[in-house]
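ping. complex inputs:
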Amino acid sequence: MTGKKEQPQDMKRREFIGKTVLAAGAVSVAPGILLTVANAKTEGEGASSNIRWGMLIDSNKCVDNCTACVDACNQENGIDLMQQPKGQGDEMWNAQRPQWIRKVKLRDRQTGEVTNLPMMCQHCEFPPCVDVCPTGASFKRADGIVMVDRHTCIGCRYCMMACPYKARSFIHQNVQEQTVRAPRGKGCVESCNLCVHRVDSGASTTACQDACDKDGHKAILFGDLKDPESQLSKALKEKSSRQIRADLELNTGVRYTSL
Amino acid sequence: MPMKKLHYSELWCSSPRYWGGLAALTFIILLGMASAYYMEHSGHWVTGMSNQVVWGLPHVFAIFLIVAASGALNVASIGSVFGGPLYKPLGRFSGLLAIGLLAGGLVVLLLDLGRPERLIVAITHFNFKSIFAWNIILYTGFFTIVGIYLWAMIDRKAQKFYEATGFAAFFWRLALTTGTGSIFGFLVAREAYDAAIMAPMFIIMSFSYGLAFFIITLMSAYWWSSRELGSHRLEKLKNLLGVFVGAVLYFSLVYHLTNLYITQHHGVERFILLDGGFYTVMFWLGQVTIGGIIPLFMLYSPAFSDNRFAIAIASVLVLIGGFVQIYIIVIAGQAYPMTLFPGKEVVSSSFYDGVVAAYSPSLAEGMLGLAGIAIAMTLVAVGARVLKVLPESLEDPGADSA
Amino acid sequence: MHSSTGILRAAGLILAAGMALLSTAAVSDSAVTPGSRAAGMESCVAPTAEIRRNHMDYLKHDRIKVVHDGVRDVKNSLAGCVACHAEKDGKGGYHPVNADGQFCSGCHEYLAVSLTCFQCHSKQPEQKHSAAASLSGEENAGQSGALRLLMEFDEAPPLSAEEMAQLHAVSREE
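pong. complex structure:
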């Protein structure tokens, strides 16, 4: 008997809680609903799969002891704004600082021939780094540029393990200063993105190419692999070029001649 | 012959010992958490990791614990899937140990991420081509399935799920360890990886380390709570461990022999087996001798036939050897340079192309790793005290029949 | 026992009123700092109440467009926000937009929501930190308003009337 008297009150409490939760839910969801309707417009611009960005590097023209491309890349992408943390050794700093492009000097074991070349992300058509990224942060854009969406990167570094060219760098420290065009922060992975901010703004060259051209070496040529009229395509037709680690069949966007 | 009815009870041992042990474990865990906070707050520059060796000591601990976790469930599987009567009473503890070890390993793995606060992103964004993403699903699924399996074993009302969950847990953990091995096996980039044998090798490693952990924890639990552990049952476990240790040695042998046959891989083999300095010493001394030959001797030699202490020591040595084996797989595999330009030597590069990368682990990394083991042990200790997972007596069956 | 119903009702009413208040963003104090470009403008890229509530969703949506699709000319660009809302520090530079007392902390400190955007993104508008910074001047001129904000900020030519209308919520009824 007393049970029946209690029940209505329980129902009232449940009703109250239920209605409050419903109201709270409605208040929080409502703005979202408005948002999706408001942003339903479509854009026609942006990266397109009609283009595939690539690069041709002539190692014959690459000069010993020149680091113009490296310096230009560092400046363009704000890497030169990073500073060695206080208390860190020089060797560790060199091993931990980001390097999107690096100069490599080789000597043939049999013939003794010396070769110089810059090495960066090869922008593969079948990138191992994209395959292994657990969140999909490492991705290939429609126009072939392989890059990291650092909003989604959790910093697991599996892509760094997977890259056959060791192209990726992890940011090991808090970054105080960045350029607007190249955000950078602790705990994420990054690599050469073929100066994607310039490319998207309509530029036809990368910073490294500009620097190499300015110094008169002209060893780097950036362009559209899918456009038969582009300087790059024509150069690839004229010269014999190859991919580094071609046996992996990744179909890289960056090719080398005289190697 | 009527079998004495098996009675499980919570683990009780003298309070100072139990609480003292928990206090020590908690202290280690706190040190580990402080280290993790330090590494996350300053950034990874305070560790020994770099762009050359990107996975360091925390990953070695994490992978070691995760591999051992799946193997620790082996005992339960033998009991339920393969119908081994001597193993059936050990099933509950096996499940608890598996959950504890996996939790410990995952904590270390997640705290070493560059952005651990983005765990939510990791469990809401999946790239299904990535074996890493599959591993995340396999790990979380493991907790669920083993949790239900444990419930089916403990709760009489859930007994109907026992067989199904037993099979599910068995296959799930095979998938999990295959996934863990494939993290390395699927990488074409590095000479030390890129091998199909990595997955089955990890499976057999899991059997060995998991059983070693199981034996040590079981013996400790029964010793500290003054419960009886029958010699015959222990001998079965000991012999099984010996088989697994031998199998791990066999898989290692096949892996290295194959690499030695492939000219392209001679460099990395030479590095590990001959002139890698620290890594070579650790391989021959740590992995092969301490982790393989000495335990085999202690487990099978008639000189140690009735010696429980020898079994415990052998298990510890197996774990040490296993840790070293994973250290070599993870670290040496990264330290050895990739060959981008076959036939050419690298004269200079600012990014350490062509040279063996240096890696010396920092204290913070070590503390985080040890905290992982401590977390596992704490979960097991608390679980054994709260749940009825350990039989009152594990005396040999038929021991008290007249 | 029955008096507790009255208290519950009152609590419910207060809770609902509080939520209603928050949802309408009736708080009208402006966080815009006097030395910023925004101080001289009527409104942001969306009406104040709307942008206050939804800026994180707008930014999240547009960042996917920028990063994955390469569409740079978005209405809700973080660099755009910073360019307008950063306060000049009187020495030729800018205060970091998320520093204490600056624009972002105006609301975020009160609401205790920590910002991670500026762990990676620049807290100041692009300043000419080197001559070889980005594109040459001619290529600059062809770009639309939002993009130009990314470049040599101090030399960015003033926005045309159409660009102004595109970037700012001048009028909502169309």
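Residues 8-337+353-396 of chain B form a domain with the Formate dehydrogenase/DMSO reductase fold fold (CATH 1.20.1630.10).
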